[in-house]
């Protein structure tokens, strides 16, 4: 078996668990190890992979993702894998229990941003779903990063987004096949959202949330964090992040300026 096949085999065997894959690969590569892969078993496993796959060894794997802590060894996917290497990707994240305010401004920002940015999000309730839907509606391109198996749409209300992304956009996951949702995996997958994105837009969220983790990951990689502000009486991660140094963005044009992206067409003309 070659190195690529070994990575895919272990990714499936250990259901995308990075630490277990890492340990298994290290054992196999250790010259003193007497552990051998059961090639018959491995061939059966590889034969039953029911989605396309890229590995960290493949040309299609984005360089930016290699720079994060624990880059996924394998990504299972459906859709247009070339989107992973497109320039200008904007992650849009926020509260699952969002307000009309959050939904409205997510839509208003994505409507303009998707002209020049691939929109990246996590296919969760609330802001994630709004970002994907707006991007699809306004004929942009979007990437959905799952925290469960690549063939699982764990939120049935988002099945339409999932199916559309499989056809003309992109769905990716480090978890194979029908790996069920695990609450621990969702914060872990946020590193992938950040790793493939150039800028992060937080449109709404509460303090002490998964959104805060994502923003911290983006800041730690010296990426740009943009936040839509809200009123001071809200428990708002956006206001907190702005206070801590994130960019306050009042219009989509502000995001373009922060990301230093020039619109391909004059979308901001009145």
Task: Compose a concise summary of this entry.
The protein is α/β, with parallel strands linked by helices and 270 residues long. It has helices at 3-13, 18-29, 39-47, 63-66, 100-113, 127-137, 159-168, 185-195, 210-220, 237-243, 252-259, and strands at 53-55, 74-79, 89-94, 118-121, 142-145, 170-173, 199-204, 224-227, 247-248.
User: What's the end-to-end separation, in Å?
Assistant: 60 Å
Radius of gyration: 19 Å
Spans of at least 5 consecutive residues whose pLDDT stays below 50 are none
How many β-strands, per DSSP? 9
Q: Helical region count?
A: 11
Q: In percent, how much strand structure appears in the residues?
A: 5-15%
What is the structural class? alpha/beta
Helix content: 40-55%
User: In this structure, how is the largest beta sheet organized?
Assistant: 9 strands, mixed
Q: Could you give the order of the helices and strands?
A: HHHEHEEHEHEHEHEHEHEH
Strand order, largest beta sheet? 1-2-6-5-4-3-7-8-9
Summed over residues and divided by their number, the pLDDT gives a mean of: 93
Describe this structure as you would to a colleague.
The protein is of the alpha/beta class. The protein has eleven helices and nine strands. The protein has helices at 3-13, 18-29, 39-47, 63-66, 100-113, 127-137, 159-168, 185-195, 210-220, 237-243, 252-259, and strands spanning 53-55, 74-79, 89-94, 118-121, 142-145, 170-173, 199-204, 224-227, 247-248. A nine-stranded mixed beta sheet has the order 1-2-6-5-4-3-7-8-9, with helices on both faces. Strand 8 (224-227), helix 10 and strand 9 form a beta-alpha-beta unit. Helix 5 packs across helix 11. The radius of gyration is 19 Å and the shape is elongated. The termini are far apart. The relative contact order is 0.14.
């Amino acid at each position: 078996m070659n190195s690529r096949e070994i990575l895919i085999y272990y990714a499936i065997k250990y259901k995308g668990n990075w630490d277990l894959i890492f340990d298994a690969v290290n054992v196999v590569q250790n010259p003193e190890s007497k552990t051998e892969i059961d090639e018959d078993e491995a061939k059966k496993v590889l034969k039953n992979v029911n989605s396309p796959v890229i590995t960290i060894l493949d040309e299609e794997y984005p360089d930016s993702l290699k720079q994060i802590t624990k880059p996924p060894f394998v990504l299972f996917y459906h859709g247009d894998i070339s989107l992973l290497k497109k320039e200008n990707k904007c992650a849009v994240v926020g509260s699952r229990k969002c307000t009309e305010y959050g939904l409205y401004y997510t839509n208003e920002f994505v409507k303009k941003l998707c002209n020049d940015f691939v929109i990246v999000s996590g296919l969760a309730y609330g802001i994630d779903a709004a970002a994907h839907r707006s991007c699809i509606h306004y004929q942009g391109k979007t990437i959905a990063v799952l925290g469960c198996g690549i063939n699982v749409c764990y939120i049935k209300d988002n099945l339409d987004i999932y199916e559309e992304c499989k056809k003309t956009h992109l769905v990716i996951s480090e978890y194979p096949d029908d790996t069920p949702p695990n609450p621990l995996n969702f914060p872990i997958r946020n590193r992938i959202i950040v790793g493939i994105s150039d800028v992060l837009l937080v449109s709404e969220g509460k303090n002490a949330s998964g959104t805060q983790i994502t923003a911290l990951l983006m800041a730690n990689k010296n990426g740009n964090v943009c936040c839509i502000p809200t009123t001071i009486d809200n428990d708002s991660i956006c206001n907190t992040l702005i206070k801590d140094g994130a960019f306050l963005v009042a219009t989509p044009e502000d995001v373009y300026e922060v990301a230093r992206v020039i619109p391909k067409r004059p979308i901001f003309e009145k």
